[in-house]
Structures are given as C-alpha cells and as structure tokens.
Amino acid sequence: MLLSKAHITLSALALSPFAVSTPTLDKTTYPGFVHPSNGDCKDYNVKSTVTYEQLQWDQPRYKDNYEVASLLTKVASQAKVPLPAFSGSANVTKEFQIAGTFCKPKSSNNSKQNTVFVATHGAGFDRRYWASSFKPNEYSFAQYALEAGYSIFYYDRLGVGYSSRLSGYDVEINPQVELLASILKSLRAGKYIEGIKPSNLVLVGHSFGSVISNLILGRHPELVEGAVLTGFSFPTPADPAASASGFGLSVFASRIVSTLTGDARPQFANSFDNGWLSFADKFAFTEAFLGAEDYEVPAAEYSYKIAQPYSIVDFLSAFAQPSVADKYVGKLLLAPAERDLFFCAGNCTDTFARGGQKSAFPNPKTDISLFVQEGSGHGQNFALNARDLYKAITTFADNL
Ligand SMILES: *[C@@H]1O[C@H](CO)[C@@H](O)[C@H](O)[C@H]1NC(C)=O
Ligand SMILES: *[C@@H]1O[C@H](CO)[C@@H](O)[C@H](O)[C@H]1NC(C)=O
Ligand SMILES: *[C@@H]1O[C@H](CO)[C@@H](O)[C@H](O)[C@H]1NC(C)=O
C-alpha cells in the first residue's frame, strides 16, 4: 500500500472549533470545458453537512521547497525514517460545497440510463479527468458511458476545482468519504439527476478517488450496486510495489504551488495556500502519469493544462485509514494500468497476480473481476487505449 510505511499515530484530542463554511470560487464552469456532446448535462453545487473524524496536523508548515524536498526524500526512503504524523483526531460536523456535473444520454431512453456512474478523480486532477474536452471521442469516459446508454455524475473533490477550497494542511480523506456517501444518498433519492430513478449506482474511482471509493465499500457498502477501481492496487508486503510506491511523490517533482511560474502554474494557483503542491514541469507530470509509450504528446499537454494541486497531508491521511471492505457483497471491477509506477512499480499484472485484493475484499460473496489496461501508465484516461478501459467498465455495468 502506498505510504504504508508511514508510522501514522493517532491519539484522541479534545474537540477544537472549526469554521462553519469554506470558500469556493465564483464560477462553476471551467474556461474551455464543454459537456459531452451526446449528453443532457447539468452542473450542480451540492451543499452537504457531514460529520467525520478530522485528523489533526500540527506539524510546522513548509517554509520553502527545500522543506518539501526533504519531506519527499523521507517518504521515498526504504529506511524506517520517521515521518511527520497526525497528532490526533476529533469528530467534527461541517458544511462543504461540492461542484459536480450530471449527464444522462441525450438520445436513448432505455432502462440503462438508470444506472449512474459516480466518478471520483485522483490527486492532481479535478472532474475534467472524466470528461476530456480534448479529443473526447478518444479520451472522455463520460462521453463513452453516455454512448453506451449510461448516466454519470462526476465532481470536483473537496479542495480543488470549484468545490470548497481548504488549506492544504486541513484537506484529508475522511470528509471526502462522507461527502461521497452524502452524494450517493442524494442521487438515490432522485436529487441532482434530472428525473432519473437510479436502479444502480456504480462507483468509478481513479487513484486517490479509488481510495475514497474503496472506503465507501468499507464504511457504507449498502450505498452502491457496483464499483470500479482504476489506478489503484493492493500490494502484498513482499511485492516490490509495496515499498517502491513511496517514490511516487518524488516522481511528481512536487513544489509549493504558489512558487510555480509560467506553464507550470496551474489554474486557480492563487486560491491555494502553501500546503498545496504541484508538478515542477510538464515532463515531471508526464513521467508520473503517462506510460512510457502509451500516450500522444498533445494528450500529455492537455492533461497537464487541466492538472490541479494536491496535498501531502491528504495523501498521508488516506493511507492512515484501514481499507478492508468485508461487508461489500456487490460486484467489483479492478481495472489498473499495466505499467502503473505508483501502485504496481510498473507491473500491475504482477501485483494483482499476488492476490492482495483478496485481503482487501475478504467476503467470499464479493464478485471481483480484473481488467489490466495494456501498456498504460497511471493516468489511464489519457492513454492511447483509454477506450479499452471504458469498454471494460461499460461491459461490467452491462452485467450488473
Ligand atoms: C468519533 O465518533 C466515532 C463514532 O461515534 C467514535 O467511534 C470515535 O471514537 C470518535 N472519535 C473521537 C476522536 O472522538
Ligand atoms: C422515457 O420513458 C419513460 C417510460 O417508458 C416515459 O414515461 C418517458 O416519457 C420517456 N421520456 C422521454 C424523454 O421520452
Ligand atoms: C509482469 O509480471 C508478470 C507476472 O509476474 C510477468 O509474467 C511479466 O513478464 C512481467 N512483465 C514485464 C514487462 O516485466
């Protein structure tokens, strides 16, 4: 498991007061971002009040990129270097706003549209990961799913895009899991989905979004009928992937987002504090996300242009959470990239052959299938063969 060697300790701390609401950006549509042409789509700002266990990060804040570099060296180290840890946790209730898009097929009116994919992007992206405006015929999962007759809800995770902005030292996994649970309950009740009565809700996660989706299967297994986890794996301790994954953040060549200039400065850079990091340049991004051969340069340029910052605290919080989903008895498609560096040290066929997924989903009733996207790197939706992945996902939905 990525960063599993982080010795993250939790101890109970007194409740501390939290602000009630968080800022968002004014607009809700990205410049140049278009909805899938075959979809009947609408953008929403979903307000949710959630209760969750807030992990507390009392470490000194980064002064500069030298401190970020030192932290990443420690995270990547094979030695048992002590990492900064959370000092405790407290249960809090807070309201957030999540910006999302719902689309149903424009032309079809069969029962398939009542199956709704609920898509959660990973770190370094926002909801546009699922709906590329660049060559959508090749790269947009939303368009592919709509073409196959399905509906989709895709949203900006807490902290990025047009969802509530948080300090990079406060953003963490638990509110994200509860926000997704809250979205699923709303969709089930017919909210934000334009007259659809959902018969199946199917999680689709990428990377960090798969970590969140996996935690839904662990904590709220009754909320969905199916789940697809991409850009994610369950390495056993002896798998080289289990220890190599700490290098992942180093490959990002992470820098404090406000120090980046020119092309490297992501959209909305001014709205992120120095707890947020981004890629030093487009080559670091390409190295981290795209397979060595399985991409075209214009797709690398486009996906870099829509990249968003991420937070190390967010990462550390994710891997401080147990991920065993023993009560989930629905269908599950594990769909990693063959050459994923972060999660499989470059060979997911090998990582999945070792069977770690059986410990993550120990219930014999969980129906697990596996699709490995040939030759692709971690950013699977921008690989040349993204449509092979999409076909595997819609075929999975056909058989729910
Ligand atoms: C938060 O609430 C849960 C559920 O009631 C409880 O198990 C947990 O111990 C609480 N955590 C803290 C830090 O109070
Ligand atoms: C879709 O089908 C349902 C049930 O057959 C029907 O009630 C509804 O009017 C149809 N909607 C459209 C837009 O054709
Ligand atoms: C990946 O791992 C599998 C299973 O261990 C192995 O058969 C295959 O040769 C490896 N692929 C590469 C490209 O090394």
TrEMBL record:
Matches recorded under InterPro entries: AB_hydrolase_1, AB_hydrolase_fold, Carboxylesterase_BioH
Keywords linked to the UniProt accession: Signal
Leader sequence segment: 1-21
Keyword Transmembrane helix: no
Lineage, highest ranks first: Eukaryota, Fungi, Dikarya, Ascomycota, Pezizomycotina
Domain of life: Eukaryota
Domain AB hydrolase-1 residue range list: 118-381
Name of the molecule in the record: AB hydrolase-1 domain-containing protein
Organism: Pseudopithomyces chartarum
SUPFAM superfamilies: alpha/beta-Hydrolases (SSF53474)
